[in-house]
Amino acid sequence: MRSVFSKLGKALALMVVVSSLSMFVGGASAAEDKGHEIVIDGSTTVGPIAKAFAEYYMEKYPEVNITVSESGSGNGAKSLINGTCHIADMSRFMKESEFKAAVEKDVLPVAHVVAMDGLAVIVHPSNPASDLTLEQVRDIYLGKITNWNEVGGPEKKIVVISRDTNSGTYETFENIVMRKEKIAAGVEYVGSNGAIRQRVQSTQAAIGYVGLGFVDRTVKALTVNGVAPTGNTVASGKYPIARPLYMFTNRYPKLGSHVHGFVTLHMSKKGQEIIEAIGFVPLTQY
C-alpha cells in the first residue's frame, strides 16, 4: 500500500511539472508518425473541441486516424487508466481515487488545460425570467423554489434538468452551485450537454445547465448574479460558474509525436481560433 501512495505522489508531482511545461511548448510537427491512430474518449463538453481539432488535424496529416467518443469525464478517465484511449477529455480535474487507480496500473496521468468554460443556466426562450442569483439556482435544484413565479417567471412548476452524476459538468455544478448539497429527488438526469439543451428547447418550464459551446438561439441563457455567461465574463473571472477544460494523457507525450501535436494544438493560433469559434474561451484570453 505504501508503494501505491508513493507512486501516487510521483504521479501528482509529474502531472504538475509537465502540465506547466505544456503551457510553454507549442504544437510540434508530427509528420514522422506515419499511419498513427489517436483514440479519444470522455467529456461531452470537451468533445466538440476534440472533434474540431481532429477534423483540422486529419486534414493537415492525412495519415493520422483520430476517433472521438463522448462517454463522460468519468468514463474518459477509466479509458485512460485501462489503456483503451490515448487522450481522456475531462471537464473536471481527475479525482484522487482515479489517480490512485491509474498509478496502480503504471499509468501517470498528465493534465493539459486546453480551454476555459462557463456553465450557462438555460431556460426556454419564451420564459420571461432573465436573472437568477447563485443562491436561487441552488434553491431550485434543492427543491426549495418550485414555481417560476417565485423568480420572475410564469405561473408554472419548474422542470429541473441536470447532467448525469458521471459527468464532469455535473461535478462542477455540484461544487460551485450546490456546494455539495444533495440535488432534490425528482430532478431529471440526462446524459449530455446536447440532451439538456434539447430538453429545455422542448419544455417551456424547464431549466438546465450547459457549457458555453452549447448555448444557441434555441435556448435562453440567464444572467447569474447579474452577469451574462460569455467568453469575456469567463475570461475576466466575473461569471461565477466557470472551469478549465482538460485533455489527459498517460505521461507527457513524446515531443514530435502526433499525440503531442494534438494536445498542444490549443496553444497555436489555429487552435485558439477553433476554440473561440465553438464558443469556449482560449487560454490566451484568460
TrEMBL record:
Annotated PBP domain residues: 31-264
GO molecular function: phosphate ion binding
Keyword vocabulary terms for this entry: Phosphate transport, Signal, Transport
GO biological process terms on file: phosphate ion transport
Signal peptide boundaries: 1-30
Database matches in Pfam families: PBP_like_2 (PF12849)
Function: Involved in the system for phosphate transport across the cytoplasmic membrane.
Family statement: Belongs to the PstS family.
Protein name (database record): Phosphate-binding protein
Origin species: candidate division TA06 bacterium DG_24
